[in-house]
Amino acid sequence: MTTIASGTDTLTRDALTVLQPGFTGTTAPDWLLRRLGEGLASVGLFGRNIASPEQLAALTAQLRAERDDVLVAIDEEGGDVTRLEVRSGSSFPGNHALGAVDDVELTRQVAAELGRRLAACGVNLNWAPSADINSNPANPVIGVRSFGAGTDLAARHTAAYVTGLQSAGVAACTKHFPGHGDTAVDSHHALPRIDAGAAVLTERELAPFRAAIAAGTRAMMSAHILVPALDPDRPATLSRAVLTDLLRGELGYTGLIVTDGMEMQAISATYGIERGSVLAIAAGADAICVGGGLADDETVRRLRDALVTAVRSGELPEARLAEAAERVRELARWTATATADPVEARPDIGLVAARRALRLTGAASFTPLTEAPYVAAFTPVANIAVGDETPWGVAADLERLLPGTRTGSHTGEDAGREALAAAGGSRLVAVVRDEHRHPWMAAALDDLLTARPDTIVVEMGVPQAAPRGALHIATHGAARVCGRAAAEVIAGV
Questions:
Q1: Rounded CA gap, 54 and 43, in Å?
Q2: Average pLDDT over every residue of 327-343
Q3: In the prediction, which pLDDT does 382 show?
Q4: Burial grade of 105 (CB within 10 A; 0-12, 13-18, 19 or more)
Q5: Residues 49 and 30 sit within 8 Å (Cβ to Cβ)
Q6: What does pTM read for this prediction?
Q7: Is residue 8 scored above 80 in pLDDT?
Q8: Which string of DSSP letters, residue by residue, matches 269-334?
Q9: Helix (H, G, I), strand (E, B), or coil: what is residue 472?
Q10: Tens of pLDDT along 157-184?
Q11: Residues 96, 188, 410, 438: which is the catalytic one?
């Protein structure tokens, strides 16, 4: 039975209902349970909240004991961005690998199996898929999270992903509207700007979102980006022109609109989270995502009070807040009644997809290794969405296949020389991530290939640079299964 504190007035309940906060720890803190009793309707989970599937199931059961219709959300894209398997790496390749295969039925199956695992743990809202088109190769935050640079490709796989995820009874939250792909700035750190014209945006960026709407996506996440062709003054998350006029009006979307994390610098450093939250709801957003960085009761109180104060002062229409809260409740009702398709579990589907996503250059003349190599991981700074907790690469799987495999992480202008010295007489396997975006990484490969032309190169980011090495393997992502698939090729199994 849903618990609502009798002393909480309607306005305060609505203000709490539109928040999607996070918390620290692997059990729900007392303050969070109390807020659920007062009207909070959603909780966001991150890697810090998850230790195992069993623990996660116990946590979601704890939340539902307080409020049975709570929306439990997670940022689980598979691939590089994983929360379920944050400490081991994902069992599913990400979007870029699925786009490289370009089999929409495979994408649907992967999303359905991911959704099945989420549902089994009590999660009913996934902040995925990313529908952004990878139209700027220098993008520091989207990259392998995108299905690819092709408009039609991204659109059909976005639709397939939404269909697969929701077939498991988990609501999809397609992101980042109106498209974060054509940026060279990470909105976690600053406010990106997209200067494409309205016609380009309509034909390119918006196509995957139209496909998601047609597929019935239950939620949509806004992007903290400035798009002057749509609104010259406010970022999309705070723009009525983008959220209400375009998304609801022109595109006919009727589901939940969720903001990206409000503590991201694109909003917090320009408007502040309280002011930003009020503007977002006024613009047409229905739920405020916060908790990736700010994860405490004080944050919930601040945002609740900001919304209540804005209504009482006349800045935010009470009817708009009530409408937003009702959309949250509507999604909660859907998740409570959604039934999963009766399909057999496919625990191997992620590895199947990862193997199919590999692109090999030089394979015809390559002889698989029989002796343990040295794996040089050229490690860039991870963006915040991916995080630095999740292991990546091929070393662990090569150690399993070729016992005695050694590895080291190298960064900076001396990376190549350091790797050569560490390798000694062992065969070299160089693992890179977005070589095209990191001049030091390209220089390191130059050093290795000049001294050791038999070096094997594994590109685990966007394979934009020309392939080189005795064997070049493009995995289209750094998920654990992508590393395993590449290791199998190197060892010939």
A1: 18
A2: 90
A3: 63
A4: exposed
A5: no
A6: 0.94
A7: no
A8: TTT-HHHHHHHHHHHT--BEE--SS--SHHHHHHHHHHHHHHHHHTSS-HHHHHHHHHHHHHHHHH
A9: strand
A10: 999 999 999 999 999 999 999 998 777 6
A11: 188
pLDDT at 4: 40
Task: Look at phi and psi of residue 338 and say left if phi exceeds 0, alpha if psi is from -120 to 50, else beta.
Answer: beta
Q: Do 160 and 108 form a contact (C-beta atoms < 8 A)? A: yes
Contact residues for 30 (Cβ-Cβ < 8 A; gap 6+): none
| CA neighbor of 470 nearest in space, from 488, 483, 487, 452 | 452
Catalytic residue of the set 182, 260, 286, 447 = 260
Residue 231 designated active-site: no
Q: Does 52 have pLDDT greater than 50? A: yes
Q: Which amino acid is at 341?
A: D
- Tokens matching residue 65: 């004991």
pLDDT in tens, 258-304: 999 998 887 888 899 999 999 999 999 999 999 888 899 999 999 99
Residue 454 known to be catalytic: no
What is the structure's pLDDT at 186? 57
Report CA torsion sign: 104, 478, 141, 459: negative
Backbone angles phi, psi at 449, to 5 degrees: -75, -25
Q: How is residue 190 written in tokens?
A: 């600053």
User: Is the model's pLDDT at 137 over the cut of 80?
Assistant: no
| Residue (of 175, 173, 290) closest to 236 by Cα position | 175
Residue 71's contacts (CB-CB under 8 Å, 6 or more residues apart) are 20, 41, 42, 43, 124, 125, 171, 328, 331, 332, 335
